[in-house]
């Protein structure tokens, strides 16, 4: 809907003779900016609500009687469209006033009445002359039948006619037998027709043939029998609609004004046309019975109502009937049709269109009023009002008024055709339940009046429902989208109208509601709503108005459309936040007096560069009224521009805080946060790099530089901006975790968040904002940062008051609170903090009452905690877990874990296994046999490797007096390597692990073997090869075991001993003892002794000897392969040159003999 399509449809001025039509191009203003008025009562009537189709206003003229006791004594009321007067009845008097007066306290004329149990009926009559606007008044006692007539309400008191008996008439009412007057209608010029409870109708003439006041009566309809019998036998029940007269109207006036038709309708469908001759030869009026006729409407409609199967026995009860103002003999009726098949009390409300003439009744169509709820029983009987020109029907139902257009143009097209009644447009106006309606009236369309219904209320004055004229051939105004959109708009733009109930009762599809929500959002945001001006003089006021509208929009949607609210609210909140964001930004720009012009100039430049709106002399106003949808893009570039210009960081921070905290975060928390029914959505700020820029400003202002103490304002900005960052980032992470968990961007966000949040909290701590930091981290479940704050505060309190102080004790209770409230979620991140900051003692020994959380944490983070978790297990005497963790920890090659630590761990693991045996709990690990032997063996094997490396290392450094720093690799090459190994080979095979060896780190198996076998045997007291074989024996992989052991034997046989010396020690020149001494001095002999002739290892030696030096390389290292090949050639030479195998066997046997 464009702004040019105004909802205002004022009447034409008094100078125009044409009927009222819509104002095609009038400018519309909301009730926020101009007094609510209708065109006829401009500047006087209070406009309660308005849309394209109708306007509801509160008329200003209200007598003082309404003010007394807030109208509690008022009983009945009535409004007359002919004279523009109304009357109201209380217990003491009838009060008459001009309800169209512009005076807020109009002249009210009182006619006292006698106090009795029966309240009289009162009807206003036409003025006595064509010039006067002063109506007359007829007062009728509904019980006694006494009629009083005052020709002029204004002159009667002045002339002393209030108690004049000359204009009184006693009607023949059989009140003693229960008859009473139920209805009175003005049918002038004939007079007043009253109907009784016995269905009698009596015409009271007010004037004689000279038009002078004179009362007389004539009975128009007599039907005493049934009602009298009902009175005797009591056949009626109070729960049913009585068979009574429901409508009396004046029909045609013909024969030059001499003949008048009066039609009467009862609830059972009895229709009567009474032809009344106003003047006769004798001068007395009379009823022309020959031209009068009757029909039963029910008979004609039982098979002619749309929506019911032909032949259905319908139970119809007529409520009202009006003649068409434009078509002769055409009538529109209102009736109930019972639908007992739905529920016992279910009934629908129908409008019927028909032609009635002396020949019969021709139904034209029927229509169920869609805005009527058949399940809600009405307290009062519905009434129909069909003001001229008869194109709009008003149907009153208690506190509701259904308004529907009537299109009976087909009557003119073909009098013989029958068509369904199809109203063009229908809507319902509902008043609040506390509005008590005393009476009704209506207004015909005139040169300065639209067709209207008048409602006189007890405590809210006179209300007018005015229907704007529309073209029958226009757009589809029955579209549910337009109707629901109109109701929402009225509710949010006219929310101050306490008389109107804006909540909808009609059901609309979710799709229709969401479409209406979307259109309203767009129209308000772009200022194209017909309820809004294009702009206001104040940008602040205009944006504040929009923010208020969106807030009411959310409340209304939640209350009226709960099924779509979770979906709709996110869209509305986005629009609210953008407008509020813009509002807060503008407020802050205006507040920064010294920088305001610079900021406005920069913002205008960015808007023009972004091309959000066309550049003109009022770019800023145009942007804030029409370009709010682009506020994210504009503000992001605005911040970037200010950063590039080296603008004041404190001022820029204040701008960001004002806009994001008050414009976005407050609304997020108020409407969306912590509501599980509302789906997560990606906040609109993430459409640009705005968050990154905000964090950049935060870092520059609060994280960089020294420990400068900020001003109070700066501290407040710090707290708010910190929470903004937390909310935005955590919301984005939650959204991606739910909808896009596999996106790499999620990992980046999480990593970025974990890297930055500690800086945000550190900024708070630097400014001593501890409590605020606790509140933020607790709110967003950042327990890592919460632990950081708590530990920071704890250390501070310990330094000031001591570890055992009351202050520290109180803080520890805070820990307990978090353990209890957040349970493992908090505990695990507190433990993470301890691990990260190497506070192992605090981790293992603090908060023992929640040890079960620590056990869970150690179990779930076994790898991360294996360095120390065993301590807790040992303290808890859980030896199985302790030994397992110790072994796993010691077996890892981790930075910072030296050989001594590993030895301790394996030693403790060994003790733990032994202890577990003692307690009988060695069956908890699946890899452990019944008594823990295999696990014990693993620890012992690992200790063997460690001891071998330590023996090697200690042998090396003893040459330097234990000074590790003196041990250099060059010294190794010069003084410790085996002379049969070249420097290049030693450099390649040993240097890669030299640093680990020197730094007391555990070596890999092959590196340890290299060190034990490539150095001079004497360095390790000839035990190197034996230790190397022991290490190789621990290898589980069969192929590697065979390779390592044969490699060691190969090196031992080729570079371990000088075989030429043994070959020269023959019996010709040596004794047995000498040879024996030589043999026992060989490295081979000592190796046999070291390994205790382990069969597994000896077998590999025998396989090497039997293969005649054939050796399969298992290493990819080319240098190692070259060395191996060289040694194989050397060994092959030994086979040829010496009786090599026999010497090896003899040495082995010598070693065996000594062992035995």
From TrEMBL:
<dbReference type="InterPro" id="IPR037624">
    <property type="entry name" value="Nup133-like"/>
</dbReference>
<comment type="similarity">
    <text>Belongs to the nucleoporin Nup133 family.</text>
</comment>
<dbReference type="InterPro" id="IPR014908">
    <property type="entry name" value="Nucleoporin_Nup133/Nup155_N"/>
</dbReference>
<keyword id="KW-0539">Nucleus</keyword>
<dbReference type="InterPro" id="IPR015943">
    <property type="entry name" value="WD40/YVTN_repeat-like_dom_sf"/>
</dbReference>
<dbReference type="GO" id="GO:0016973">
    <property type="term" value="P:poly(A)+ mRNA export from nucleus"/>
</dbReference>
<dbReference type="GO" id="GO:0000972">
    <property type="term" value="P:transcription-dependent tethering of RNA polymerase II gene DNA at nuclear periphery"/>
</dbReference>
<feature type="region of interest" description="Disordered">
    <location>
        <begin position="1"/>
        <end position="38"/>
    </location>
</feature>
<protein>
    <recommendedName>
        <fullName>Nucleoporin Nup133/Nup155-like N-terminal domain-containing protein</fullName>
    </recommendedName>
</protein>
<dbReference type="GO" id="GO:0006606">
    <property type="term" value="P:protein import into nucleus"/>
</dbReference>
<feature type="compositionally biased region" description="Polar residues">
    <location>
        <begin position="14"/>
        <end position="38"/>
    </location>
</feature>
<feature type="domain" description="Nucleoporin Nup133/Nup155-like N-terminal">
    <location>
        <begin position="49"/>
        <end position="464"/>
    </location>
</feature>
<keyword id="KW-0813">Transport</keyword>
<dbReference type="GO" id="GO:0017056">
    <property type="term" value="F:structural constituent of nuclear pore"/>
</dbReference>
<dbReference type="Pfam" id="PF08801">
    <property type="entry name" value="Nucleoporin_N"/>
</dbReference>
<dbReference type="GO" id="GO:0031080">
    <property type="term" value="C:nuclear pore outer ring"/>
</dbReference>
């Amino acid at each position: 809907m464009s702004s040019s399509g105004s909802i205002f449809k004022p009447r034409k001025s008094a100078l125009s003779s044409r009927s009222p039509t819509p104002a095609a191009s009038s400018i519309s203003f909301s009730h926020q900016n101009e007094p609510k008025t209708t065109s006829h009562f401009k500047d006087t009537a209070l406009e309660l609500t308005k849309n394209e189709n109708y306007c509801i206003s509160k008329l200003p003229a209200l007598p003082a009687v309404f003010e007394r006791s807030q109208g509690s004594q008022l009983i009945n009321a009535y409004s007359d469209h002919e004279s523009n007067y109304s009357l109201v009845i209380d217990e003491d008097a009838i009060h008459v006033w001009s309800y169209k007066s512009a005076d807020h306290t109009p002249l009210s004329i009182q006619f006292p009445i006698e106090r009795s149990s029966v309240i009289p009926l009162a009807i206003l009559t036409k003025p006595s002359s064509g010039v006067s606007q002063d109506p007359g008044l007829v007062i009728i006692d509904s019980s006694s039948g006494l009629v009083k007539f005052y020709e002029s309400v204004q002159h009667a008191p002045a002339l002393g006619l209030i108690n004049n008996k000359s204009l009184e008439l006693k009607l023949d009412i059989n009140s003693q037998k229960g008859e009473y007057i139920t209805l009175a209608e003005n049918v002038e010029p004939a007079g007043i027709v009253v109907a009784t409870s016995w269905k009698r109708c009596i015409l009271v003439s007010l004037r004689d043939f000279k038009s002078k006041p004179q009362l007389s009566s004539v009975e128009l309809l007599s039907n005493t029998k049934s009602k009298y019998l009902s009175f005797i036998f009591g056949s009626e029940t109070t729960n049913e609609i009585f068979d009574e007269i429901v409508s009396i109207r004046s029909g045609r006036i013909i024969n030059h004004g001499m003949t008048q038709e009066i039609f009467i309708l009862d609830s059972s469908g009895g229709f009567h046309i009474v032809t009344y001759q106003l003047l006769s030869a004798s001068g007395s009026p009379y009823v022309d019975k020959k031209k009068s006729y009757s029909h039963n409407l029910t008979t004609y409609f039982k098979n002619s109502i749309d929506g019911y199967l032909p032949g259905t026995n319908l139970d119809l009860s007529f409520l009202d009937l009006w003649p068409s103002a434009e078509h002769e003999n055409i009538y529109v009726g209102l009736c109930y049709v019972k639908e007992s098949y739905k529920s016992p009390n279910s009934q629908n409300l129908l409008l019927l269109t028909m032609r009635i003439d002396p020949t019969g009744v021709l139904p034209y169509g029927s229509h169920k009023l869609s805005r009527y709820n058949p399940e809600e029983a009405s307290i009062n009987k519905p009434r129909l009002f069909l003001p001229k020109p008869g194109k709009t029907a008003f149907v009153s139902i208690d506190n509701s008024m259904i308004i529907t257009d009537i299109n009976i143009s087909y009557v003119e097209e073909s009098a013989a055709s029958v068509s369904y009644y199809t109203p063009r447009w229908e809507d319902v106006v509902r008043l609040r339940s506390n509005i008590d309606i005393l009476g009704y009236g209506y207004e015909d369309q005139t040169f300065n009046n639209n067709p209207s219904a008048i409602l006189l209320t007890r405590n809210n004055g006179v209300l007018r429902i005015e229907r704007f004229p529309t073209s029958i051939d226009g757009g589809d105004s029955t579209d549910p989208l337009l109707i629901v959109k109109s109701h929402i708009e009225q509710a949010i733009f006219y929310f101050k109208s306490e008389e109107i109930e804006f909540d909808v009762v009609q059901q609309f599809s979710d799709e229709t509601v969401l479409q209406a929500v979307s259109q309203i959002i767009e129209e308000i945001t772009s200022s194209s709503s017909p309820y809004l001006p294009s702009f206001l003089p104040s940008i602040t006021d205009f944006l504040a108005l929009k923010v208020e509208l969106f807030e009411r929009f959310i409340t209304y949607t939640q209350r009226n459309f709960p099924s779509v609210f979770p979906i709709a609210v996110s869209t509305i909140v986005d629009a609210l936040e953008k407008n509020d964001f813009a509002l807060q930004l503008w407020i802050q720009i205006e507040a920064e007096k010294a920088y305001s012009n610079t900021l406005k100039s920069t913002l205008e430049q960015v808007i023009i560069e972004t091309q959000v709106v066309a550049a003109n002399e009022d770019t800023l106003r145009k942007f804030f009224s029409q370009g709010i949808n682009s506020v994210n893009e504009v503000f992001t570039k605005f911040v970037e521009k200010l950063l590039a210009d080296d603008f004041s960081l404190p001022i820029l921070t204040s701008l960001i805080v004002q806009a994001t905290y008050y414009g976005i975060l407050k609304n997020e928390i108020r409407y969306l946060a912590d509501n599980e029914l509302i789906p997560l959505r990606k906040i609109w700020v993430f459409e640009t790099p705005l968050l990154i820029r905000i964090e950049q400003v935060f870092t520059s202002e609060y994280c960089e530089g020294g420990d400068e103490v900020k001003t109070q304002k700066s501290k407040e900005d710090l707290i708010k901006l910190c929470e903004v960052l937390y909310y935005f980032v955590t919301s984005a992470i939650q959204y991606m975790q739910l909808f896009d968990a596999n996106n790499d961007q999620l990992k980046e966000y999480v990593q970025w968040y974990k890297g930055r949040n500690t800086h945000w909290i550190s900024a708070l701590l630097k400014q001593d904002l501890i409590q605020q930091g606790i509140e933020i981290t607790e709110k967003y479940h950042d327990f890592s940062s919460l632990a950081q704050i708590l530990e920071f505060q704890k250390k501070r309190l310990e330094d000031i008051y001591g570890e055992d102080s009351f202050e520290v004790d109180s803080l520890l209770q805070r820990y307990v609170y978090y353990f209890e409230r957040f349970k493992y979620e908090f505990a695990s991140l507190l433990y993470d903090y301890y691990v990260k900051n190497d506070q192992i003692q605090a981790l293992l020994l603090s908060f023992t009452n929640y040890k079960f959380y620590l056990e869970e944490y150690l179990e779930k983070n076994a790898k991360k905690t294996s360095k120390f978790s065993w301590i807790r297990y040992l303290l808890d005497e859980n030896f199985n877990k302790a030994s397992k963790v110790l072994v796993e920890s010691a077996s890892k090659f981790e930075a910072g874990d030296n050989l001594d630590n590993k030895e301790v761990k394996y030693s403790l693991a060994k003790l733990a296994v032994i202890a577990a045996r003692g307690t009988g709990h060695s069956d908890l690990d699946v890899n452990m046999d019944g008594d823990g032997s295999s696990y014990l063996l693993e620890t012992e094997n690992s200790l063997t490797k460690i001891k071998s490396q330590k023996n090697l290392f200690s042998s090396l450094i003893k040459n330097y007096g234990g000074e590790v720093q003196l041990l250099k690799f060059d010294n190794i090459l010069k003084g410790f390597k085996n002379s049969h190994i070249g420097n290049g080979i030693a450099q390649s095979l040993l240097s890669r692990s030299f640093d680990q060896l020197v730094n007391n780190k555990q070596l890999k198996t092959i590196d340890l073997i290299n060190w034990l076998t490539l150095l001079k045997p004497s360095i390790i007291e000839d035990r190197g090869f034996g230790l190397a074989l022991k290490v190789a024996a621990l290898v589980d992989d069969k192929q590697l075991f065979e390779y390592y052991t044969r490699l060691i034997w190969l090196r031992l046989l080729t570079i371990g001993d000088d075989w030429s010396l043994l070959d020269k020690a023959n019996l010709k020149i040596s004794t047995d003892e000498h040879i024996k001494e030589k043999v026992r001095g060989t490295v081979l002999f000592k190796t046999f002794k070291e390994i205790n002739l382990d069969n597994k290892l000896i077998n590999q030696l025998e396989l090497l000897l039997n293969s005649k030096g054939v050796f399969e390389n298992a290493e990819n290292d080319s240098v190692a392969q070259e060395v191996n090949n060289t040694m194989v050639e050397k060994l092959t030479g030994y086979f040829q040159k010496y009786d090599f195998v026999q010497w090896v066997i003899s040495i082995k046997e010598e070693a065996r003999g000594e062992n035995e």
